[in-house]
Design a protein that fits this description.
about 230 residues; alpha/beta; five-stranded parallel β-sheet; about 10% strand
């Protein structure tokens, strides 16, 4: 029996936990803010966060993972750094916010680790799933919005950014193809949690779909997006 086990008792949160996933350049940051605006207009308290990051420790780990060119972590070390960040994030930020009744919108969570370190880098998927569960102490998203774009669109959007690409964004094209394929496979295997949204369309159309999905999933009236 594995020594990594799911927690026997996990306090049920009061808020909703929604994660945004997708390849580079899929528009996660933009659409998180648009969903936040939609929810807050309906009286819902919202907390926006990200991974890696979300806590002071997590932001330090983010810098190591993305922006330190002098000491590139091997795959096992990379996985453990992401998971350490997640463990801190869940206990210090996500669970407390959910317990207060807030809806937490998170830019990347466990599915990114599965797609990037599992499917793209080749880390054992079954082991990684158990390690993710351990790091998150059994917490799983209520809904995962997968913003899907093709590798070609991803590359074009990254090239148009004024900022310098980080270490993972600079990975070769085949890596990013495997990331996208991994996300789509994860969504196919968990259709009750995932909603795949075509993010190659106009921003307004994508946002309307996201807000409609959230309204339907959590059963509050759908109102025209303006």
């Amino acid at each position: 029996m594995s020594s990594i086990v799911k927690a026997d008792c996990v306090t049920k949160p009061h808020g909703k936990f929604i994660t945004f996933e997708g390849p580079e350049g899929s528009g996660k940051t933009t659409h998180i803010q648009l969903l936040r605006k939609f929810l807050e207009a309906r009286g819902i308290q919202v907390s926006v966060t990200r991974e890696p990051g979300g806590t002071p420790l997590g932001e330090k780990i983010r810098g190591l993972l993305q922006h330190d060119p002098n000491d590139v972590p091997v795959t096992r070390a990379e996985v453990l750094l992401f998971l350490a960040c997640r463990a801190q994030h869940v206990e210090q930020h996500i669970r407390p916010e959910l317990a207060q009744g807030k809806w937490v919108l998170c830019d990347r969570f466990e599915d990114s680790t599965m797609a990037y370190q599992g499917y793209a880098r080749g880390f054992d998927l079954a082991l990684l799933d158990r390690m993710n569960d351990f790091a998150a102490n059994g917490l799983r998203p209520d809904l995962t919005l997968l913003l899907d774009v093709s590798p070609e669109t991803s590359r074009a959007r990254l090239a148009a950014r004024p900022s310098t690409p980080d270490r993972i964004e600079r990975e070769h094209g085949g890596f990013h193809v495997r990331v996208r394929d991994g996300f789509l496979d994860l969504a196919k295997n968990a259709p009750e949690r995932f909603m795949v949204v075509n993010s190659e369309r106009e921003q307004e159309a994508v946002s309307t779909d996201i807000c409609s999905v959230v309204a339907e999933r959590f059963r509050f009236d759908r109102i025209t997006i303006t």
